[in-house]
Amino acid sequence: MKKTQATRRRFFKTLSAGAAALGLGSPFALASNASKEEPAKEGDQVLFVGDNIALANTNYGKVRGFILRDIYHFLGIPYGADTSGANRFMPPQKPKPWTDTYPALWWGNSAPQQMENRYANKFASFRDQWNYDDVSEDCLRINIFTPGYNDSKKRPVLLWMHGGGFWNGNAIEHEGYKGENLARLGDVVFCSVNHRLGPLGFTDLSGVGGEKYASSGNVGMLDLVAALEWIHDNIANFGGDPNNVTIMGQSGGGSKVCTTTAMPAAKGLFSKAVVLSGARVDLGLPDLSKKLGAYILKEAGLEPAQVDQLQQMPWQKYYEIALRAAGKLAVDSGKTAASASQIFQPRVDGKHIPDHPYWQKPSPYAAKVPMLICSVTNESSSTWTDSSRESITLDGLKEQFKGTYGEKAGAIVDAYAKTFSNKKPAEIWSMITNHRQRSVLLADSKSKQEAPVYLAWFGWQPPLFDNRLRAFHCLDICFWFYNTDTMLSHTGGGARPRALSQKMAGALLQFMKTGDPNGGGLPKWAKYSSDKGETMFLDDTCALQNDPDREARKVLPPYVIS
After folding, report:
1. Tell me, what's the pLDDT at 329?
2. Closest to 385 in 3D by CA, of 281, 493, 469
3. How do residues 491-524 score in pLDDT, each as one tens digit?
4. Strand order in the sheet with 61-64
5. Are strands 272-276 and 453-458 parallel, antiparallel or unpaired?
6. With respect to CATH, is domain 373-553 assigned 3.40.50.1820?
7. CATH 3.40.50.1820 region(s) of the chain?
8. b/e per residue, 42-76, with b = 16+ CB within 10 A?
9. Higher pLDDT, 295 or 40
Protein backbone atom coordinates (compact mmCIF):
# COMPACT_ATOMS: atom_id res chain seq x y z
CA MET A 1 0.00 0.00 0.00
CA LYS A 2 1.38 3.39 -0.91
CA LYS A 3 2.40 5.70 1.88
CA THR A 4 -0.24 8.32 1.05
CA GLN A 5 -2.98 5.72 1.15
CA ALA A 6 -1.71 4.30 4.43
CA THR A 7 -1.60 7.80 5.91
CA ARG A 8 -5.15 8.51 4.84
CA ARG A 9 -6.27 5.17 6.21
CA ARG A 10 -4.58 5.76 9.57
CA PHE A 11 -6.15 9.19 9.71
CA PHE A 12 -9.59 7.86 8.87
CA LYS A 13 -9.45 5.25 11.61
CA THR A 14 -9.31 8.13 14.12
CA LEU A 15 -12.70 9.44 13.06
CA SER A 16 -15.59 9.11 15.44
CA ALA A 17 -18.75 8.59 13.43
CA GLY A 18 -20.74 10.61 15.91
CA ALA A 19 -23.02 13.61 15.81
CA ALA A 20 -20.56 15.81 14.00
CA ALA A 21 -19.98 13.41 11.11
CA LEU A 22 -23.48 11.99 10.72
CA GLY A 23 -25.73 14.55 12.30
CA LEU A 24 -27.17 11.91 14.64
CA GLY A 25 -26.97 13.70 17.95
CA SER A 26 -25.30 10.79 19.74
CA PRO A 27 -22.10 9.00 18.77
CA PHE A 28 -21.80 5.58 17.22
CA ALA A 29 -19.41 3.11 18.78
CA LEU A 30 -16.15 2.98 16.89
CA ALA A 31 -15.24 -0.25 15.14
CA SER A 32 -13.18 -2.52 17.35
CA ASN A 33 -10.00 -1.95 15.36
CA ALA A 34 -10.27 1.84 15.66
CA SER A 35 -7.36 3.93 16.85
CA LYS A 36 -7.32 5.29 20.39
CA GLU A 37 -6.28 8.70 19.09
CA GLU A 38 -8.51 11.75 19.42
CA PRO A 39 -11.38 11.76 16.91
CA ALA A 40 -11.35 14.19 14.03
CA LYS A 41 -13.00 17.52 14.66
CA GLU A 42 -16.19 18.70 13.04
CA GLY A 43 -15.39 20.18 9.65
CA ASP A 44 -12.64 17.70 8.81
CA GLN A 45 -12.79 15.88 5.50
CA VAL A 46 -15.03 12.80 5.60
CA LEU A 47 -14.88 11.54 1.99
CA PHE A 48 -11.76 10.19 0.32
CA VAL A 49 -11.69 9.03 -3.29
CA GLY A 50 -8.84 8.79 -5.77
CA ASP A 51 -6.60 6.55 -7.85
CA ASN A 52 -4.81 5.01 -4.87
CA ILE A 53 -7.59 4.93 -2.31
CA ALA A 54 -9.63 1.85 -1.34
CA LEU A 55 -7.98 -0.58 -3.77
CA ALA A 56 -8.88 -4.23 -3.32
CA ASN A 57 -8.39 -7.47 -5.22
CA THR A 58 -11.00 -9.92 -6.47
CA ASN A 59 -10.57 -13.14 -8.42
CA TYR A 60 -11.51 -11.21 -11.55
CA GLY A 61 -9.45 -8.04 -11.18
CA LYS A 62 -8.82 -5.05 -8.95
CA VAL A 63 -11.59 -2.73 -7.77
CA ARG A 64 -11.42 0.81 -6.47
CA GLY A 65 -13.98 2.18 -4.04
CA PHE A 66 -13.99 5.14 -1.69
CA ILE A 67 -13.89 5.89 2.03
CA LEU A 68 -16.81 7.69 3.66
CA ARG A 69 -16.87 8.41 7.39
CA ASP A 70 -14.21 5.71 8.02
CA ILE A 71 -16.12 2.96 6.16
CA TYR A 72 -14.82 1.57 2.88
CA HIS A 73 -17.51 1.47 0.18
CA PHE A 74 -17.18 -0.83 -2.84
CA LEU A 75 -20.31 -0.53 -4.97
CA GLY A 76 -21.59 -2.40 -8.00
CA ILE A 77 -18.87 -5.06 -8.29
CA PRO A 78 -19.77 -7.75 -10.89
CA TYR A 79 -20.30 -11.15 -9.29
CA GLY A 80 -21.69 -12.64 -12.52
CA ALA A 81 -21.65 -12.04 -16.25
CA ASP A 82 -24.19 -10.09 -18.28
CA THR A 83 -27.40 -12.16 -18.38
CA SER A 84 -28.61 -10.94 -21.77
CA GLY A 85 -28.48 -12.79 -25.09
CA ALA A 86 -27.30 -16.38 -24.86
CA ASN A 87 -27.12 -16.07 -21.05
CA ARG A 88 -30.82 -15.19 -20.73
CA PHE A 89 -32.73 -17.94 -18.86
CA MET A 90 -29.40 -19.67 -18.16
CA PRO A 91 -27.70 -20.26 -14.79
CA PRO A 92 -25.39 -17.34 -13.93
CA GLN A 93 -21.94 -17.35 -15.49
CA LYS A 94 -18.75 -16.11 -13.88
CA PRO A 95 -17.90 -12.48 -14.65
CA LYS A 96 -15.38 -11.84 -17.36
CA PRO A 97 -12.03 -10.82 -15.79
CA TRP A 98 -10.94 -7.22 -16.29
CA THR A 99 -7.44 -5.75 -16.59
CA ASP A 100 -8.10 -2.13 -15.65
CA THR A 101 -9.09 -1.25 -12.10
CA TYR A 102 -12.88 -1.49 -11.86
CA PRO A 103 -14.49 1.73 -10.52
CA ALA A 104 -16.70 0.40 -7.70
CA LEU A 105 -18.11 3.85 -7.08
CA TRP A 106 -21.82 3.51 -7.89
CA TRP A 107 -24.67 1.03 -7.50
CA GLY A 108 -25.11 -1.65 -10.12
CA ASN A 109 -28.00 -1.68 -12.56
CA SER A 110 -31.38 -2.76 -11.24
CA ALA A 111 -32.72 -5.98 -12.74
CA PRO A 112 -35.26 -5.49 -15.56
CA GLN A 113 -38.64 -4.68 -14.05
CA GLN A 114 -41.64 -2.46 -14.58
CA MET A 115 -40.53 1.14 -14.06
CA GLU A 116 -43.49 3.01 -15.52
CA ASN A 117 -45.24 5.12 -12.88
CA ARG A 118 -42.74 4.01 -10.25
CA TYR A 119 -43.16 7.35 -8.48
CA ALA A 120 -46.83 7.93 -9.31
CA ASN A 121 -47.97 7.39 -5.71
CA LYS A 122 -46.65 10.50 -4.00
CA PHE A 123 -47.37 9.17 -0.52
CA ALA A 124 -45.40 5.96 -1.08
CA SER A 125 -42.60 7.80 -2.87
CA PHE A 126 -42.22 10.21 0.05
CA ARG A 127 -42.38 7.51 2.72
CA ASP A 128 -40.03 5.05 1.04
CA GLN A 129 -37.72 7.48 -0.79
CA TRP A 130 -37.30 5.06 -3.70
CA ASN A 131 -33.82 4.76 -5.22
CA TYR A 132 -33.85 3.47 -8.78
CA ASP A 133 -31.29 3.97 -11.51
CA ASP A 134 -30.55 2.25 -14.82
CA VAL A 135 -32.32 -1.03 -15.53
CA SER A 136 -30.38 -3.68 -17.43
CA GLU A 137 -29.86 -7.41 -17.81
CA ASP A 138 -26.25 -6.74 -16.87
CA CYS A 139 -27.37 -6.55 -13.24
CA LEU A 140 -25.44 -9.15 -11.22
CA ARG A 141 -23.71 -6.75 -8.86
CA ILE A 142 -22.65 -6.76 -5.22
CA ASN A 143 -22.09 -3.82 -2.84
CA ILE A 144 -19.71 -4.02 0.12
CA PHE A 145 -19.40 -1.82 3.20
CA THR A 146 -16.46 -2.67 5.44
CA PRO A 147 -14.48 -1.00 8.27
CA GLY A 148 -11.20 -2.31 6.85
CA TYR A 149 -9.59 -4.63 4.32
CA ASN A 150 -6.26 -6.36 3.79
CA ASP A 151 -5.87 -6.25 7.57
CA SER A 152 -6.00 -10.00 8.29
CA LYS A 153 -9.24 -9.57 10.24
CA LYS A 154 -12.10 -12.02 9.87
CA ARG A 155 -15.24 -9.98 10.37
CA PRO A 156 -18.73 -11.49 10.35
CA VAL A 157 -20.42 -10.97 6.97
CA LEU A 158 -24.04 -10.14 6.20
CA LEU A 159 -25.64 -10.61 2.77
CA TRP A 160 -28.80 -8.54 2.36
CA MET A 161 -31.43 -9.85 -0.07
CA HIS A 162 -33.72 -7.03 -1.10
CA GLY A 163 -37.53 -7.03 -0.98
CA GLY A 164 -40.06 -6.48 -3.72
CA GLY A 165 -41.32 -10.03 -3.95
CA PHE A 166 -39.54 -11.91 -6.72
CA TRP A 167 -40.78 -9.18 -9.03
CA ASN A 168 -39.09 -5.83 -8.34
CA GLY A 169 -36.69 -3.95 -6.09
CA ASN A 170 -32.94 -3.53 -5.86
CA ALA A 171 -30.11 -3.56 -3.35
CA ILE A 172 -30.43 0.14 -2.48
CA GLU A 173 -34.17 0.67 -2.94
CA HIS A 174 -34.37 2.43 0.45
CA GLU A 175 -31.74 4.52 2.20
CA GLY A 176 -32.37 2.18 5.10
CA TYR A 177 -30.72 -0.62 3.09
CA LYS A 178 -27.28 1.01 3.33
CA GLY A 179 -24.75 -0.93 5.37
CA GLU A 180 -22.39 1.83 6.45
CA ASN A 181 -23.75 2.34 9.96
CA LEU A 182 -24.06 -1.35 10.87
CA ALA A 183 -20.54 -2.01 9.56
CA ARG A 184 -19.24 0.76 11.80
CA LEU A 185 -21.28 -0.15 14.86
CA GLY A 186 -20.32 -3.81 14.91
CA ASP A 187 -17.07 -4.05 12.94
CA VAL A 188 -18.76 -6.29 10.36
CA VAL A 189 -18.87 -6.52 6.57
CA PHE A 190 -22.23 -5.70 4.98
CA CYS A 191 -23.04 -6.90 1.45
CA SER A 192 -26.12 -6.42 -0.74
CA VAL A 193 -26.90 -7.68 -4.25
CA ASN A 194 -29.03 -7.24 -7.33
CA HIS A 195 -30.23 -10.36 -9.15
CA ARG A 196 -32.69 -11.38 -11.86
CA LEU A 197 -36.39 -10.92 -11.15
CA GLY A 198 -39.80 -11.58 -12.63
CA PRO A 199 -40.08 -13.01 -16.17
CA LEU A 200 -36.30 -12.91 -16.70
CA GLY A 201 -35.54 -14.65 -13.42
CA PHE A 202 -38.35 -17.16 -13.15
CA THR A 203 -39.69 -18.26 -16.54
CA ASP A 204 -39.81 -22.05 -16.70
CA LEU A 205 -39.12 -22.97 -20.33
CA SER A 206 -38.16 -26.58 -19.60
CA GLY A 207 -41.46 -27.85 -20.99
CA VAL A 208 -40.72 -26.42 -24.46
CA GLY A 209 -36.95 -26.02 -24.43
CA GLY A 210 -35.78 -29.32 -22.99
CA GLU A 211 -32.56 -29.85 -21.07
CA LYS A 212 -30.98 -26.60 -22.24
CA TYR A 213 -33.64 -24.68 -20.32
CA ALA A 214 -33.95 -27.09 -17.40
CA SER A 215 -32.89 -24.43 -14.86
CA SER A 216 -34.70 -21.45 -16.40
CA GLY A 217 -37.51 -21.34 -13.83
CA ASN A 218 -35.13 -20.71 -10.91
CA VAL A 219 -32.22 -18.71 -12.34
CA GLY A 220 -33.10 -15.70 -10.17
CA MET A 221 -32.38 -17.82 -7.10
CA LEU A 222 -29.27 -19.34 -8.68
CA ASP A 223 -27.98 -15.76 -8.95
CA LEU A 224 -28.14 -15.48 -5.15
CA VAL A 225 -26.21 -18.73 -4.79
CA ALA A 226 -23.61 -17.28 -7.19
CA ALA A 227 -23.38 -14.20 -4.97
CA LEU A 228 -22.74 -16.42 -1.95
CA GLU A 229 -20.06 -18.29 -3.90
CA TRP A 230 -18.45 -14.96 -4.82
CA ILE A 231 -18.47 -13.94 -1.16
CA HIS A 232 -16.92 -17.26 -0.17
CA ASP A 233 -14.11 -16.80 -2.69
CA ASN A 234 -13.49 -13.05 -2.35
CA ILE A 235 -14.75 -11.54 0.90
CA ALA A 236 -11.50 -12.18 2.79
CA ASN A 237 -9.98 -9.51 0.54
CA PHE A 238 -12.50 -7.08 2.04
CA GLY A 239 -11.90 -7.95 5.70
CA GLY A 240 -14.66 -10.56 5.96
CA ASP A 241 -14.81 -14.14 7.21
CA PRO A 242 -16.10 -16.45 4.43
CA ASN A 243 -16.99 -19.01 7.08
CA ASN A 244 -19.28 -16.68 9.04
CA VAL A 245 -21.94 -15.39 6.63
CA THR A 246 -25.49 -14.42 7.64
CA ILE A 247 -28.17 -14.16 4.95
CA MET A 248 -30.94 -11.67 5.67
CA GLY A 249 -33.94 -10.32 3.81
CA GLN A 250 -37.30 -8.60 4.27
CA SER A 251 -40.61 -9.30 2.53
CA GLY A 252 -39.65 -10.86 -0.80
CA GLY A 253 -36.11 -10.88 0.55
CA GLY A 254 -37.27 -12.94 3.52
CA SER A 255 -38.82 -15.39 1.07
CA LYS A 256 -35.49 -15.50 -0.75
CA VAL A 257 -33.72 -16.33 2.50
CA CYS A 258 -36.15 -19.19 3.18
CA THR A 259 -35.76 -20.46 -0.38
CA THR A 260 -31.96 -20.25 -0.20
CA THR A 261 -31.98 -22.46 2.89
CA ALA A 262 -33.73 -25.12 0.79
CA MET A 263 -31.10 -25.15 -1.99
CA PRO A 264 -28.41 -27.86 -1.84
CA ALA A 265 -25.95 -25.66 -3.74
CA ALA A 266 -26.11 -23.01 -0.99
CA LYS A 267 -25.35 -25.41 1.85
CA GLY A 268 -22.19 -24.38 3.67
CA LEU A 269 -22.07 -20.92 2.10
CA PHE A 270 -23.87 -19.29 5.06
CA SER A 271 -24.17 -20.07 8.75
CA LYS A 272 -27.14 -17.95 10.00
CA ALA A 273 -30.40 -16.69 8.53
CA VAL A 274 -32.68 -13.73 9.30
CA VAL A 275 -36.22 -13.48 7.88
CA LEU A 276 -38.20 -10.23 8.17
CA SER A 277 -41.89 -10.16 7.15
CA GLY A 278 -41.29 -12.73 4.47
CA ALA A 279 -41.66 -16.14 6.09
CA ARG A 280 -41.93 -18.62 3.22
CA VAL A 281 -42.81 -22.17 4.18
CA ASP A 282 -43.82 -23.38 0.71
CA LEU A 283 -43.09 -22.68 -2.95
CA GLY A 284 -45.13 -23.15 -6.08
CA LEU A 285 -45.24 -26.56 -7.71
CA PRO A 286 -43.95 -27.03 -11.27
CA ASP A 287 -47.32 -28.02 -12.75
CA LEU A 288 -48.39 -24.47 -13.60
CA SER A 289 -44.97 -23.06 -14.43
CA LYS A 290 -44.18 -25.86 -16.91
CA LYS A 291 -47.25 -24.86 -18.94
CA LEU A 292 -46.04 -21.27 -19.22
CA GLY A 293 -43.46 -21.90 -21.94
CA ALA A 294 -46.08 -23.07 -24.42
CA TYR A 295 -48.23 -20.02 -23.70
CA ILE A 296 -45.24 -17.72 -24.21
CA LEU A 297 -44.29 -19.30 -27.52
CA LYS A 298 -47.85 -19.00 -28.75
CA GLU A 299 -48.02 -15.35 -27.68
CA ALA A 300 -44.71 -14.70 -29.46
CA GLY A 301 -45.83 -16.53 -32.63
CA LEU A 302 -43.00 -19.06 -32.34
CA GLU A 303 -42.71 -22.83 -32.65
CA PRO A 304 -40.90 -24.95 -30.03
CA ALA A 305 -37.89 -25.25 -32.35
CA GLN A 306 -37.63 -21.45 -32.26
CA VAL A 307 -37.49 -21.10 -28.47
CA ASP A 308 -33.95 -19.68 -28.65
CA GLN A 309 -35.38 -16.57 -30.31
CA LEU A 310 -36.74 -15.58 -26.90
CA GLN A 311 -33.13 -14.94 -25.90
CA GLN A 312 -32.51 -12.48 -28.69
CA MET A 313 -35.48 -10.10 -28.53
CA PRO A 314 -35.20 -6.91 -26.43
CA TRP A 315 -36.03 -7.66 -22.83
CA GLN A 316 -38.90 -5.15 -22.84
CA LYS A 317 -40.59 -7.02 -25.70
CA TYR A 318 -40.09 -10.39 -24.02
CA TYR A 319 -41.39 -8.95 -20.77
CA GLU A 320 -44.65 -7.82 -22.40
CA ILE A 321 -45.11 -11.19 -24.15
CA ALA A 322 -44.44 -13.11 -20.93
CA LEU A 323 -46.93 -11.03 -18.94
CA ARG A 324 -49.70 -11.46 -21.49
CA ALA A 325 -49.02 -15.20 -21.67
CA ALA A 326 -48.98 -15.54 -17.88
CA GLY A 327 -52.28 -13.67 -17.65
CA LYS A 328 -53.93 -16.08 -20.09
CA LEU A 329 -52.46 -19.09 -18.28
CA ALA A 330 -53.74 -17.76 -14.96
CA VAL A 331 -57.28 -17.33 -16.31
CA ASP A 332 -57.24 -20.75 -17.97
CA SER A 333 -56.16 -22.23 -14.61
CA GLY A 334 -59.10 -20.71 -12.76
CA LYS A 335 -57.19 -17.76 -11.33
CA THR A 336 -57.44 -14.05 -12.07
CA ALA A 337 -55.26 -12.30 -14.65
CA ALA A 338 -54.00 -10.09 -11.82
CA SER A 339 -52.33 -13.15 -10.27
CA ALA A 340 -50.08 -13.61 -13.32
CA SER A 341 -47.06 -12.14 -11.53
CA GLN A 342 -47.25 -14.94 -8.95
CA ILE A 343 -46.29 -17.42 -11.67
CA PHE A 344 -42.84 -15.81 -11.89
CA GLN A 345 -41.51 -17.14 -8.60
CA PRO A 346 -39.21 -19.97 -7.53
CA ARG A 347 -40.59 -23.46 -7.96
CA VAL A 348 -39.83 -26.85 -6.50
CA ASP A 349 -37.94 -28.42 -9.40
CA GLY A 350 -36.48 -31.55 -7.81
CA LYS A 351 -32.91 -30.37 -8.44
CA HIS A 352 -32.00 -26.82 -7.47
CA ILE A 353 -34.93 -26.70 -5.04
CA PRO A 354 -35.82 -30.32 -4.21
CA ASP A 355 -38.72 -29.58 -1.87
CA HIS A 356 -40.68 -26.88 -0.07
CA PRO A 357 -38.47 -24.99 2.42
CA TYR A 358 -40.57 -25.50 5.58
CA TRP A 359 -43.90 -27.05 4.63
CA GLN A 360 -44.62 -30.13 6.77
CA LYS A 361 -40.88 -30.55 7.41
CA PRO A 362 -37.94 -28.13 7.57
CA SER A 363 -35.24 -28.01 4.94
CA PRO A 364 -32.49 -30.50 5.78
CA TYR A 365 -29.84 -28.30 4.14
CA ALA A 366 -29.98 -25.72 6.93
CA ALA A 367 -30.58 -27.96 9.93
CA LYS A 368 -27.58 -26.49 11.76
CA VAL A 369 -28.31 -22.88 10.78
CA PRO A 370 -29.79 -20.66 13.54
CA MET A 371 -32.65 -18.46 12.35
CA LEU A 372 -34.08 -15.15 13.56
CA ILE A 373 -37.62 -14.31 12.38
CA CYS A 374 -39.48 -11.02 12.73
CA SER A 375 -42.68 -9.45 11.45
CA VAL A 376 -44.41 -6.15 12.25
CA THR A 377 -47.78 -5.56 13.86
CA ASN A 378 -49.36 -3.40 11.16
CA GLU A 379 -47.90 -4.76 7.92
CA SER A 380 -50.64 -3.48 5.60
CA SER A 381 -51.84 -0.42 7.51
CA SER A 382 -53.91 1.61 5.04
CA THR A 383 -55.17 4.61 6.99
CA TRP A 384 -52.02 6.70 6.82
CA THR A 385 -52.89 8.20 3.43
CA ASP A 386 -56.55 8.78 4.27
CA SER A 387 -57.56 9.92 7.75
CA SER A 388 -61.23 9.15 7.09
CA ARG A 389 -60.42 5.44 7.34
CA GLU A 390 -59.54 5.90 11.00
CA SER A 391 -63.25 6.10 11.83
CA ILE A 392 -64.02 2.55 10.69
CA THR A 393 -66.03 0.51 13.23
CA LEU A 394 -65.80 -3.15 14.15
CA ASP A 395 -68.95 -3.77 12.16
CA GLY A 396 -67.35 -1.98 9.24
CA LEU A 397 -64.32 -4.24 9.57
CA LYS A 398 -66.49 -7.33 9.53
CA GLU A 399 -68.07 -6.16 6.31
CA GLN A 400 -64.64 -5.28 4.90
CA PHE A 401 -63.26 -8.77 5.55
CA LYS A 402 -66.21 -10.70 4.13
CA GLY A 403 -64.57 -10.65 0.73
CA THR A 404 -61.52 -12.41 2.19
CA TYR A 405 -62.89 -14.58 4.97
CA GLY A 406 -66.59 -14.97 4.11
CA GLU A 407 -68.79 -15.88 7.06
CA LYS A 408 -65.74 -16.23 9.33
CA ALA A 409 -65.05 -12.49 9.09
CA GLY A 410 -67.14 -11.60 12.15
CA ALA A 411 -65.52 -14.20 14.39
CA ILE A 412 -62.03 -13.16 13.29
CA VAL A 413 -62.64 -9.47 13.99
CA ASP A 414 -64.19 -10.28 17.38
CA ALA A 415 -61.23 -12.50 18.33
CA TYR A 416 -58.67 -9.81 17.53
CA ALA A 417 -60.74 -7.11 19.24
CA LYS A 418 -60.89 -9.27 22.38
CA THR A 419 -57.18 -10.12 22.35
CA PHE A 420 -56.16 -6.52 21.70
CA SER A 421 -58.87 -4.65 23.57
CA ASN A 422 -56.72 -1.51 23.77
CA LYS A 423 -56.57 -1.18 19.98
CA LYS A 424 -59.02 0.82 17.90
CA PRO A 425 -60.74 -0.84 14.92
CA ALA A 426 -58.41 0.90 12.44
CA GLU A 427 -55.46 -0.81 14.16
CA ILE A 428 -57.23 -4.18 14.33
CA TRP A 429 -57.72 -3.87 10.57
CA SER A 430 -53.99 -4.06 9.87
CA MET A 431 -53.25 -6.55 12.63
CA ILE A 432 -55.50 -9.14 11.02
CA THR A 433 -53.73 -8.77 7.68
CA ASN A 434 -50.20 -9.15 9.02
CA HIS A 435 -47.46 -11.74 8.44
CA ARG A 436 -47.55 -13.15 11.94
CA GLN A 437 -49.33 -16.40 11.02
CA ARG A 438 -46.67 -17.43 8.51
CA SER A 439 -43.87 -16.27 10.81
CA VAL A 440 -45.15 -18.61 13.51
CA LEU A 441 -45.56 -21.44 11.00
CA LEU A 442 -41.94 -20.96 9.93
CA ALA A 443 -40.77 -20.85 13.55
CA ASP A 444 -42.74 -24.00 14.36
CA SER A 445 -41.17 -25.88 11.47
CA LYS A 446 -37.64 -24.58 12.04
CA SER A 447 -37.80 -25.33 15.78
CA LYS A 448 -37.91 -29.05 14.98
CA GLN A 449 -34.22 -28.82 14.04
CA GLU A 450 -31.18 -28.74 16.28
CA ALA A 451 -30.29 -25.10 15.55
CA PRO A 452 -32.19 -22.51 17.61
CA VAL A 453 -34.80 -20.16 16.21
CA TYR A 454 -35.68 -16.76 17.69
CA LEU A 455 -38.98 -15.02 17.01
CA ALA A 456 -39.74 -11.28 17.26
CA TRP A 457 -42.73 -9.01 16.66
CA PHE A 458 -42.07 -5.34 15.96
CA GLY A 459 -44.71 -2.90 17.20
CA TRP A 460 -42.97 0.49 17.43
CA GLN A 461 -45.27 3.28 16.26
CA PRO A 462 -43.72 6.18 14.28
CA PRO A 463 -44.92 9.74 15.02
CA LEU A 464 -45.62 10.51 11.36
CA PHE A 465 -48.77 11.22 9.33
CA ASP A 466 -50.59 12.18 12.54
CA ASN A 467 -49.52 8.88 14.12
CA ARG A 468 -51.33 6.86 11.45
CA LEU A 469 -48.23 5.38 9.79
CA ARG A 470 -47.93 2.67 12.44
CA ALA A 471 -45.59 -0.35 12.38
CA PHE A 472 -45.92 -0.84 8.64
CA HIS A 473 -44.34 -3.34 6.25
CA CYS A 474 -40.59 -2.43 5.90
CA LEU A 475 -40.37 -0.18 8.98
CA ASP A 476 -38.16 -2.47 11.05
CA ILE A 477 -35.38 -2.70 8.45
CA CYS A 478 -33.73 0.58 9.37
CA PHE A 479 -33.88 -0.34 13.07
CA TRP A 480 -31.93 -3.57 12.51
CA PHE A 481 -29.34 -1.71 10.44
CA TYR A 482 -28.93 1.29 12.80
CA ASN A 483 -30.32 3.58 10.12
CA THR A 484 -33.16 5.32 11.94
CA ASP A 485 -31.45 8.68 11.43
CA THR A 486 -30.84 7.85 7.78
CA MET A 487 -34.39 6.68 6.94
CA LEU A 488 -36.11 9.73 8.42
CA SER A 489 -39.30 9.30 6.41
CA HIS A 490 -39.87 6.02 8.26
CA THR A 491 -38.94 7.06 11.80
CA GLY A 492 -38.90 10.84 12.12
CA GLY A 493 -35.36 10.52 13.47
CA GLY A 494 -34.07 11.47 16.90
CA ALA A 495 -33.30 9.80 20.19
CA ARG A 496 -36.47 7.71 20.56
CA PRO A 497 -36.11 5.46 17.49
CA ARG A 498 -32.35 5.45 17.86
CA ALA A 499 -32.58 3.94 21.34
CA LEU A 500 -34.58 0.96 20.07
CA SER A 501 -32.40 0.69 16.97
CA GLN A 502 -29.25 0.40 19.05
CA LYS A 503 -30.75 -2.57 20.91
CA MET A 504 -32.03 -4.28 17.77
CA ALA A 505 -28.81 -3.72 15.82
CA GLY A 506 -26.87 -4.97 18.83
CA ALA A 507 -28.96 -8.14 18.88
CA LEU A 508 -28.45 -8.65 15.15
CA LEU A 509 -24.70 -8.23 15.51
CA GLN A 510 -24.60 -10.76 18.35
CA PHE A 511 -26.62 -13.15 16.22
CA MET A 512 -24.22 -12.70 13.30
CA LYS A 513 -21.26 -13.41 15.53
CA THR A 514 -22.60 -16.25 17.66
CA GLY A 515 -25.97 -17.45 16.37
CA ASP A 516 -27.57 -16.08 19.56
CA PRO A 517 -29.03 -12.51 19.76
CA ASN A 518 -28.53 -12.23 23.51
CA GLY A 519 -26.03 -9.75 24.88
CA GLY A 520 -26.78 -6.98 22.39
CA GLY A 521 -29.03 -4.83 24.56
CA LEU A 522 -32.45 -6.48 24.43
CA PRO A 523 -33.93 -8.36 27.41
CA LYS A 524 -33.13 -12.04 27.77
CA TRP A 525 -34.37 -13.64 24.55
CA ALA A 526 -35.34 -17.29 24.92
CA LYS A 527 -35.27 -19.44 21.82
CA TYR A 528 -38.65 -20.25 20.31
CA SER A 529 -40.68 -23.34 21.16
CA SER A 530 -44.09 -24.24 19.73
CA ASP A 531 -45.40 -24.89 23.22
CA LYS A 532 -44.75 -21.42 24.67
CA GLY A 533 -44.35 -19.39 21.48
CA GLU A 534 -41.61 -17.19 22.95
CA THR A 535 -41.72 -13.86 21.11
CA MET A 536 -39.59 -10.75 21.68
CA PHE A 537 -41.93 -7.77 21.36
CA LEU A 538 -39.95 -4.81 20.03
CA ASP A 539 -41.07 -1.34 21.12
CA ASP A 540 -39.83 1.56 23.22
CA THR A 541 -39.92 -0.98 26.04
CA CYS A 542 -39.04 -4.45 24.80
CA ALA A 543 -40.23 -7.61 26.50
CA LEU A 544 -40.31 -11.35 25.90
CA GLN A 545 -43.91 -12.55 25.61
CA ASN A 546 -45.43 -15.97 25.17
CA ASP A 547 -47.35 -15.99 21.86
CA PRO A 548 -49.31 -12.76 22.50
CA ASP A 549 -51.82 -13.26 19.67
CA ARG A 550 -52.31 -17.03 19.86
CA GLU A 551 -56.02 -16.92 20.75
CA ALA A 552 -56.80 -14.46 17.97
CA ARG A 553 -54.70 -16.36 15.44
CA LYS A 554 -56.56 -19.60 16.17
CA VAL A 555 -59.66 -18.16 14.49
CA LEU A 556 -57.86 -17.47 11.20
CA PRO A 557 -58.28 -20.06 8.44
CA PRO A 558 -55.39 -22.55 8.44
CA TYR A 559 -52.60 -21.77 6.00
CA VAL A 560 -52.70 -23.87 2.85
CA ILE A 561 -50.32 -24.18 -0.10
CA SER A 562 -51.29 -21.61 -2.69
Report:
1. 94
2. 469
3. 999 999 999 999 999 999 999 999 999 999 999 9
4. 55-58, 61-64, 102-103
5. unpaired
6. yes
7. 373-553
8. eeeebebeeeebbbbebebbebbbbbbbbbbbbbb
9. 295
